[in-house]
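Consider the tokenized backbone below.
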């Protein structure tokens, strides 16, 4: 499409169209190779300077930042094309003024390669094309060098099987024991709670999938803040986009948890829970809810409380986070309503959510939910005395939903260890 659209202002020759196509494909592939080698080089560099123990921790955060940045840039092109156009205008001004700053902007290297392949004689484009080719070669060489060094340091020692446990400080051990004695007195709840936490803490596959949801939310938040020119100058409670941050992050977190719990950690976990299943199945579901709260929601809102305390002070931050936590708990009850599986242990049929068909429904629901909550909260900040009844009502809704499930649902539903796929043919016989 690009190759047929761009040459129209110059010529309609098929030869020139073919040249545009070749130039477009080569320059795009070159840019993709540069980004690829740059990302994997960062991972290899971490493996060179860090031990296996710290690499597993830090690499996840590096990938999270890179993913959030790429999502932000991708969404900028679709949502805020005006800012992108201003950026291009600034680059044109740098080019016309022969500013050396344009040579420090990697995307322009591949623009120069594109123009040289089309036959441009501008010396600046030639310099940019040389930088593009040199950057790929240099990045590939240093990547392979770093990988060889990291292979010698880690992979020969079987990085995947080197499981050195991270010993918690005594204070955390004491908190864990207190939690077991107070909130996890039932052994079934305790087993499922710690199985959830151990999997989320040690499975890089599940952590990276969850990080993908949070990175998408972070990219969307950056778009919201960038959509208003004064967004970063107006960091007060009147900024609705700022008020929406906890809601957006909690939605992404809960959707991520809802998705990753369906990915089994190992087939053995399925059989262990089958063989040890008790009659009081409600403790499985209650243990899951407590695990989601303590391992997902509580850390998120502690971080948000610190962030908003820095902006607004502890009192406004407390109101803001309690309001968001109440909304997140209500959403958790909705997403896990009648959820009858052991997290990370049950075999599921992929595609049952039909995201490829209903993505627009889910997206619209999230936008409406987020906009409504942020608008209500902005009105509540105008009259602080109304905050506590609304927050209390949110927690009462959560308590009602949990008690209702405890009395009428948890005792009746059966745990599903293997989902059955939908039948390929649906019969019309009313007796079937």
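A designed sequence for it:
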């Amino acid at each position: 499409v690009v190759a047929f659209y761009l040459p129209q202002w110059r010529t309609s020759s098929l030869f020139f169209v073919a040249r545009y196509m070749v130039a477009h494909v080569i320059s795009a592939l070159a840019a993709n190779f540069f980004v690829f080698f740059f990302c994997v080089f960062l991972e290899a560099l971490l493996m060179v300077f860090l031990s296996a123990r710290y690499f597993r921790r830090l690499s996840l955060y590096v990938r999270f930042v890179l993913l959030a940045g790429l999502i932000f840039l991708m969404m900028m092109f679709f949502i805020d094309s005006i800012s992108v156009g201003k950026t291009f205008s600034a680059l044109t001004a740098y080019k016309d003024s022969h500013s050396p700053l344009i040579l420090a902007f990697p995307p322009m290297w591949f623009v120069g390669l594109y123009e040289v392949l089309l036959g441009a004689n501008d010396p600046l484009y030639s310099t940019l094309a040389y930088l593009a080719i040199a950057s790929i070669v240099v990045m590939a060489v240093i990547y392979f060098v770093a990988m060889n060094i990291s292979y010698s340091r880690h992979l020969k020692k079987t990085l995947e099987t080197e499981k050195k446990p991270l010993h918690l400080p005594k204070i955390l051990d004491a908190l864990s024991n207190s939690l077991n004695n107070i909130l996890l007195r039932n052994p079934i709840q305790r087993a499922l709670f710690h199985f959830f936490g151990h999997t989320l803490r040690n499975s890089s596959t599940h952590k990276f999938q969850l990080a993908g949801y949070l990175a998408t939310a972070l990219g969307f938040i950056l778009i919201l803040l960038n959509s208003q020119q004064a967004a970063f100058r107006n960091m007060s409670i009147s900024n609705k986009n700022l008020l929406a941050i906890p809601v957006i992050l909690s939605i992404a977190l809960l959707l991520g948890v809802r998705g990753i719990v369906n990915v089994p950690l190992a087939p053995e976990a399925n059989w262990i829970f089958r063989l040890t299943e008790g009659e009081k199945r409600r403790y499985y579901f209650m243990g899951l809810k407590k695990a989601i709260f303590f391992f997902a929601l509580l850390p998120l809102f502690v971080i948000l409380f610190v962030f908003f305390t820095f902006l607004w002070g502890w009192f406004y931050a407390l109101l803001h986070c309690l309001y968001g936590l109440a909304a997140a708990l209500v959403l958790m009850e909705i997403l896990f309503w009648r959820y009858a599986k052991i997290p990370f242990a049950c075999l599921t049929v992929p595609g049952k959510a039909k995201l490829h068909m209903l993505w627009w429904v889910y997206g619209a629901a999230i936008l409406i939910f987020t906009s409504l909550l942020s608008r209500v909260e902005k009105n509540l900040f105008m009259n602080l005395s109304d905050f506590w009844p609304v927050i209390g009502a949110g927690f009462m809704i959560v308590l009602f939903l949990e008690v209702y499930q405890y009395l009428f649902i948890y005792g009746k539903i059966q745990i599903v260890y293997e989902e059955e796929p939908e039948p390929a043919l649906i019969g019309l016989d009313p007796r079937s």
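Residues 47 and 54 are 9 Å apart (CA to CA).
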